[in-house]
């Protein structure tokens, strides 16, 4: 059983005809993802990459039955794109756009919270279920099907972890890149919950960063849940200077529990197998599942 996306996902691309949307839509189609069309206001009725273009998400859903959307809309308009997708009945909204104003994301998060949809991102690499669907910007060839789920704040560390797991002769059920912004749709805990309760996932790799409480919340939930399925954890940013934003807008230490050391301590106390270097992720997974 996959999580969030699979071979039955009907995917539309918002910002379809732009350079980013075009490039990644083509990669997704080549991977085998069921991309059924795209949205670019004012270009409805045209065809792009042999797929129909629609003016609105509502039109796209009516015509194609789309249930999943990936957003490559520029930052100033991306929050509107998220709300439009939610309004049109899209169930999984994956937002790649980086640099969406925090004020806009607060409004979009509030708007969609009572609607039947799940937002992944923004500022994320997307979601991949190997061999079925790649709805994102990750290099598909790195991921092979298997029994290890991945939830990560970092795009590049998602690919690194997947590569290491595959090189150990294992593979991935679904990898979820949740994004590194201060306001995101799906939290580490929520993504972890989906993967840990997925019957095909025998273990989960959880990659976090300094800043915020997401990993702490996930670790505490795991301990309280009583679930024995193993989690392998890593926190990036051990050597980051205090008070400095590192890479992601959300990766800034605001309190004593935000540091890498503090997060790792709590994670260990909650029964998570924490590694101190990203180079150790694959070996630790193999050792535990061995």
Automatic annotation (TrEMBL):
EC number(s) from the headed UniProt entry: 6.2.1.5
GO biological process, one term: tricarboxylic acid cycle
An annotated Gene Ontology molecular function: nucleotide binding
Gene Ontology CC annotations of this record: succinate-CoA ligase complex (ADP-forming)
InterPro entries: Cit_synth/succinyl-CoA_lig_AS, Citrt_syn/SCS-alpha_CS, CoA-bd, CoA_lig_alpha, NAD(P)-bd_dom_sf, SUCC_ACL_C, Succinyl-CoA_synth-like
Keywords attached to this entry: Ligase, Nucleotide-binding, Tricarboxylic acid cycle
Pathway: Carbohydrate metabolism; tricarboxylic acid cycle; succinate from succinyl-CoA (ligase route): step 1/1
Major enzyme class: ligase
Annotated coiled-coil segments of the chain: none
PROSITE patterns documented for this protein: SUCCINYL_COA_LIG_1, SUCCINYL_COA_LIG_2
Keyword hit for Heme: no
Catalytic activity: succinate + ATP + CoA = succinyl-CoA + ADP + phosphate; GTP + succinate + CoA = succinyl-CoA + GDP + phosphate
Occurrences of domain CoA-binding (ranges): 4-100
SUPFAM superfamilies referenced in this protein's UniProt entry, alphabetically: NAD(P)-binding Rossmann-fold domains, Succinyl-CoA synthetase domains
Active-site residue numbers: 248 (tele-phosphohistidine intermediate)
Role summary: Succinyl-CoA synthetase functions in the citric acid cycle (TCA), coupling the hydrolysis of succinyl-CoA to the synthesis of either ATP or GTP and thus represents the only step of substrate-level phosphorylation in the TCA. The alpha subunit of the enzyme binds the substrates coenzyme A and phosphate, while succinate binding and nucleotide specificity is provided by the beta subunit.
Family that this chain belongs to: Belongs to the succinate/malate CoA ligase alpha subunit family.
Oligomer and partners: Heterotetramer of two alpha and two beta subunits.
Protein name: Succinate--CoA ligase [ADP-forming] subunit alpha
Upper lineage: Bacteria, Pseudomonadati, Bacteroidota, Flavobacteriia, Flavobacteriales
Gene this chain is encoded by: sucD
């Amino acid at each position: 059983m996959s999580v969030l996306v699979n071979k039955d996902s009907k995917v539309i691309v918002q910002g379809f005809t732009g350079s980013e949307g075009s490039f990644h839509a083509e990669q997704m189609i080549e991977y085998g993802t069921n991309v059924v069309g795209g949205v670019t206001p004012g270009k409805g009725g045209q065809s792009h990459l042999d797929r129909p273009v629609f003016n609105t998400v509502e039109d796209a859903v009516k015509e194609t039955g789309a249930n999943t959307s990936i957003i490559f809309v520029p930052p100033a308009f991306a929050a509107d794109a998220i709300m439009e997708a939610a309004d049109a009945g899209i169930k999984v909204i994956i937002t790649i756009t980086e640099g969406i104003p925090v004020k806009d994301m607060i409004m979009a998060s509030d708007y969609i919270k009572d609607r039947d949809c799940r937002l992944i991102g923004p500022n994320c690499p997307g979601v991949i279920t190997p061999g079925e669907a790649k709805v994102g910007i990750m290099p598909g060839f790195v991921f092979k099907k298997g029994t290890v789920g991945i939830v990560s704040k970092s795009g590049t560390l998602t690919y690194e972890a997947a590569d290491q797991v595959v090189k150990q002769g294992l593979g991935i059920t679904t990898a979820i890149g949740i994004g590194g912004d201060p306001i995101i749709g799906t939290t580490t805990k929520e993504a972890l919950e989906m993967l840990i309760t997925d019957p095909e996932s025998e273990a989960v790799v959880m990659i976090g960063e300094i800043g915020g409480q997401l990993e702490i919340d996930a670790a505490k939930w795991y301990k309280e849940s009583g679930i024995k399925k193993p989690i392998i954890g890593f926190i990036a940013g051990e050597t980051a200077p205090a008070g400095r934003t590192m890479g992601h807008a959300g990766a800034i230490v605001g309190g004593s529990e935000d540091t890498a050391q503090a997060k790792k301590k709590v994670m260990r106390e909650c029964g998570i197998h924490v590694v101190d270097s990203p180079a150790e992720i694959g070996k630790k997974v193999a050792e535990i599942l061995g």
